[in-house]
């Protein structure tokens, strides 16, 4: 459930009516979550609440977007909500994996919050196992999108203009050509479940995903967030090349030491 | 990657292993098995201060001190708890793959248990020693059943726990770090002085200590967590003594025992842990 940060008398609960909800799927390489970190850090978004749930593994730490001594001691938990009212943007960041058997309850709680808070649409950043691509998917762009029927009507044209590639549906039984085509997002965590539920509940949802593998997924996060930016224009590109705005994304301080501590000097 | 026997295994993805399982529809048999496992893994909190006929009024609590893990629990046993000033008021019964708690209150420091004590002279002071491992699917239940029994107005929470120094992220190598050492995390509402440096980015805390602190942050309860980074995983007097700076804190200062008694109890831990650690006669 959404719990606002400020609950003192006089301050109203944040209003997300008409906002775009941006959120990650916990998926291969954690690419969606890394991309969301870049968005929150670059746009200097304000934390407005927590998504208190029993579906995610608990974790706490100090402010992952700290820029100075003064703002480094604010506690952060595993699922938090940030907002930028000037852009009508609300972001949910998820920082830990799902507890077993809790995918479905989480999706239900999330979609019910989307409906009650009257968000206009949801954009889900995700990823899928690169090794599961078929021969055609191995060539060309590793980025894909999906739109629920309600959002297709609104922005389908824009995707065509941007020359984006829709996620292919695959045969239910590979090798047998006359079976139904289904959506298959291996390594995508709750992506498929959230998308199919949104389709059936009439929620406007877009999924933006990248094919990738586990490893150093920082470059994948940059590619995904630039892909998002082509559509939502969250940051304006300074250079002439409108597709490359990598240098303008601010890496959060919590990305330090991702691959371990310093080395013992006695090693050399 | 190959295991010892040469078969190839899939490297676990951070995305979660069984998404396919989750997406599949449950058969009635699956549902039955899942329900049975959930029932077996239920967390039961038995409060002994509630007698049969009483309505379930919440426990008024001003200070709640939680020690998670054997060393943190042993710190409370050595420096705070005794059988004269404190009485047992609750016990947690749970089972998971790592441990089963005993419902007896006569426990050894090396047992798995979760007990609640109340200060007889001030019944609003509650203390918990939780040396059993509470699994990730049980942590929320533990929180709701423990905090659900308390009146949270005016409550302040102090959490003590330990974790391996190898988990500590720092620019230097962990070889040069002097352990054990303390680090703290506090909620927004906690205004008092902390007894050690705050936990630096990008370090995080997990498991039950994180669950308790998250609960306090969300529900605006002043709380502080003291995490002791240590390189000893078993019961160890050096790790236990690393918590000593906390005895100067506002919460624990008035509760601390006589130091000679503490030394006696610590010596007892030394012999207990030696017996368990030594596999050679």
From TrEMBL, chain A:
Keywords: Chaperone, Nucleus, Phosphoprotein. Forms a heterodimer with PSMG1. The PSMG1-PSMG2 heterodimer interacts directly with the PSMA5 and PSMA7 proteasome alpha subunits. Coiled coil: none annotated. The keyword Transcription regulation does not apply. It comes from Catharus ustulatus (Russet-backed thrush). The lineage of its organism: Eukaryota, Metazoa, Chordata, Craniata, Vertebrata. Pfam families: PAC2 (PF09754). The keyword Nucleus applies. One of its GO terms (cellular component) is cytosol. Chaperone protein which promotes assembly of the 20S proteasome as part of a heterodimer with PSMG1. The PSMG1-PSMG2 heterodimer binds to the PSMA5 and PSMA7 proteasome subunits, promotes assembly of the proteasome alpha subunits into the heteroheptameric alpha ring and prevents alpha ring dimerization. This is Proteasome assembly chaperone 2. GO terms for biological process: proteasome assembly. Belongs to the PSMG2 family.
TrEMBL record, chain B:
It comes from Catharus ustulatus. Pfam families: PAC1 (PF16094). Forms a heterodimer with psmg2. It is found in: Cytoplasm. Its main location: cytoplasm. The gene is PSMG1. One of its GO terms (biological process) is proteasome core complex assembly. InterPro entries: Proteasome_assmbl_chp_1. Chaperone protein which promotes assembly of the 20S proteasome as part of a heterodimer with psmg2. GO terms for cellular component: endoplasmic reticulum. This is Proteasome assembly chaperone 1.
């Amino acid at each position: 459930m959404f719990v606002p940060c400020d609950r003192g008398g006089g301050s109203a609960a944040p209003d997300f009516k008409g906002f775009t909800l941006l959120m990650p799927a916990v998926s291969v390489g954690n690419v969606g979550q890394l991309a969301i970190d870049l968005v929150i850090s670059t746009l200097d978004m304000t934390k407005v609440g927590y998504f208190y749930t029993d579906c995610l593994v608990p974790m706490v730490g100090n402010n992952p977007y700290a820029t100075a001594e003064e703002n480094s001691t604010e506690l952060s938990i595993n699922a938090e909500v940030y907002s930028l009212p000037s852009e009508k943007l609300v972001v949910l960041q998820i920082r830990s994996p799902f507890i077993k058997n809790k995918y479905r309850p989480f999706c239900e709680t999330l979609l019910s919050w989307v409906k009650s808070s009257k968000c206009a649409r949801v954009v889900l950043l995700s990823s899928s196992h690169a090794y599961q691509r078929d021969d055609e998917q191995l060539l060309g762009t590793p980025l894909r999108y999906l739109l629920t029927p309600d959002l297709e009507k609104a922005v389908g044209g824009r995707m065509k203009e941007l020359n984006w590639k829709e996620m292919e549906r695959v045969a239910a039984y590979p090798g047998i050509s006359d079976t139904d085509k289904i959506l298959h997002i291996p390594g995508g965590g709750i992506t498929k479940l959230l998308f199919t539920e949104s389709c059936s509940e009439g929620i406007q949802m877009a999924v933006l995903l990248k094919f990738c593998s586990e490893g150093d997924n920082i470059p994948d996060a940059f590619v995904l967030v630039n892909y998002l930016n082509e559509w939502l224009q969250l940051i304006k590109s300074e250079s002439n090349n409108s597709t490359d705005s990598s240098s303008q994304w601010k890496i959060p301080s919590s990305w330090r030491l991702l691959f371990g501590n310093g080395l013992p000097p006695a090693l050399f | 990657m190959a295991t010892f026997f040469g078969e190839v295994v899939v490297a676990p993805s951070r995305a979660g292993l069984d998404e396919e399982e989750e997406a599949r529809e449950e058969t009635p048999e699956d549902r039955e098995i899942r329900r049975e496992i959930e029932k077996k893994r239920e967390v039961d909190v038995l409060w002994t201060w509630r007698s049969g006929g009483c309505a379930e009024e919440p426990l008024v609590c001003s200070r709640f001190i939680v020690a998670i893990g054997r060393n943190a629990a042993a710190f409370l046993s050595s420096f705070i708890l005794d059988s004269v000033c404190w009485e047992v008021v609750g016990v947690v019964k749970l089972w998971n793959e790592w441990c089963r708690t005993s419902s007896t209150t006569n426990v050894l420091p090396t047992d798995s248990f979760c007990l609640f004590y109340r200060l007889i002279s001030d019944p609003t002071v509650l203390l918990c020693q939780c040396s059993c491992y509470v699994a990730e699917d049980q942590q929320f239940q533990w929180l709701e059943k423990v905090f659900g029994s308390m009146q949270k107005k005016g409550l302040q929470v102090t959490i003590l726990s330990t974790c391996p120094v190898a988990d500590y992220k720092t620019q230097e190598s962990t070889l040069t770090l002097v352990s054990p050492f303390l680090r703290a995390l506090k909620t927004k509402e906690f205004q008092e002085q902390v007894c050690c440096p705050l936990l630096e980015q990008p370090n995080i805390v997990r498991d039950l200590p994180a669950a308790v602190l998250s609960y306090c942050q969300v529900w605006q309860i002043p709380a502080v967590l003291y995490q002791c980074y240590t390189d000893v995983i078993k019961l160890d007097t050096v790790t236990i003594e690393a918590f000593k700076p906390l005895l100067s804190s506002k919460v624990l200062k008035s509760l601390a025992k006589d130091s000679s008694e503490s030394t006696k109890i610590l010596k007892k831990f030394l012999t207990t842990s030696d017996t368990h650690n030594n596999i050679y006669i």
